[in-house]
Amino acid sequence: MTAPFKIAIAGGTGKLSQLIMTSLLRNNPSTTIHAIARTPNKMPEPFRSNPSVKLFTANADDQPAIQSAIRGTNIVICTYLGGPDLMLNGQKTLIDACVAEGVPRYMGSDWSFDFRGLKPGDHPGKDFALKYNAYLEEKEKETGGKLKGVHILNGAFMEVLFTPFLGVADVKNDVFKYYGNGDEKQEATTMPDAAEFTARVAADPSATGFFNMLGDSKTWPEMADIYREVYGVKPALERQGSLDELSTKLKTTFQKDPSNMYAWVGMAYQWVTSNGTTYLGKLDDKYLAGYKSKSIKDFMQDHKKEELATIYH
Q: Measuring CA to CA, how many Å separate 302 from each of 123, 195, 229, 252, 311?
């Protein structure tokens, strides 16, 4: 970044947004950050007192307030995390605000596997990604390319891999319960590493399109070996069935009660991250020059075994 930048971050009080802001301020001291949140007073003191951080109050559906908050910025970064309405309509409002204010780049709330390999319904919790991206592409055409999308893809967060909701790792009882043959790679990156990558891409005014970064890629049996090496106990590996059986169970569970997200969302993640449709392509490592991302072994060494189940929260 060769000139002072103004970067807006929507969802500014969230964990990921704060990690991104930390990286931006460390790497680019001349950056001004417009942190947008419903309750900016929840922002930790180091950000509230930083003269490079300007706080703005706006609800996700309040386009006039959002336009005021993003006015004059070079990119809007959305870090929303919530239900389908927020993730789709909230992002549409942000995109519309970008168009109205002439903001040249919009970074959507992705930080996940490559959702472009999905069909509607493959992962009901990610259908919003297909819809908001289609909307963003429409606006890119309508503006003649004056607005461009930016997307960060990093596989799963390592912080999520071992949480109970995913349904694989039972850290308390040292058991990994997986579907498939056991040779399916799980792509994952730590949240701080994804935030660092995000900050570096955001600070490059020429960066538009999809950008891939990856901390590590391991099968569940490989992760069980690392778990044993780090924690001194090897988790039992329990194969739950084939990927086809997982797909059938996912569909049945979702159709029974779509509103009970925690009954099916873990299965959906297991299905789409193991069936080969969402793996990342070529990595954009140039944005991580001089920076070493953490491996799954590094991640485990950084945390006590009992922390793995709750570290994402």
A: 31, 18, 13, 38, 11
The DSSP code sequence of 2-55 is -S--EEEEESTTSHHHHHHHHHHHHH-TT-EEEEEES-GGGS-HHHHT-TTEEE
pLDDT value, residue 313: 72
- Please tell me the distance from the alpha carbon of residue 277 to that of residue 118, in angstroms, as a whole number: 7
pLDDT of residue 39: 94
Summarize pLDDT for 53-98 with one digit per residue, the tens.
999 999 999 999 999 999 999 999 999 999 999 999 999 999 999 9
CA gap 68, 230 in Å, rounded: 50
Residue 236 carries which side chain, given as an amino acid letter? A
| Contact of 184 with 133, CB cutoff 8 Å | no
Residue labelled with tokens 């009660």 = 257
pLDDT in tens, 90-100: 999 999 999 99
- Write the CB contacts of 200 (distance below 8 Å, at least 6 apart in sequence): 23, 27, 287, 288
Closest CA to 175 of 229, 226, 236: 236
At residue 3, the pLDDT reads 56
The DSSP 8-state label assigned to residue 234 in this structure reads P
State the Cα–Cα distance between residues 91 and 243, nearest whole angstrom. Answer: 32
Measured distance CA(104)–CA(5) in Å, rounded: 12
The H-assigned helical ranges of 61-216 are: 63-70, 84-85, 91-101, 127-142, 158-161, 191-202
Q: Is the pTM of this model over 0.90?
A: yes
Rounded distance between C-alpha atoms, residue 2 and residue 154, angstroms: 26
Spans of the chain, pLDDT less than 50: 1-2
Q: Residue with structure tokens 């799954």? A: 296
Question: What residues does 76 pair with on adjacent strands?
Answer: 8, 106
Residue tagged 């049945």 (tokens): 252
Query: Which residue type does 116 have?
Result: R
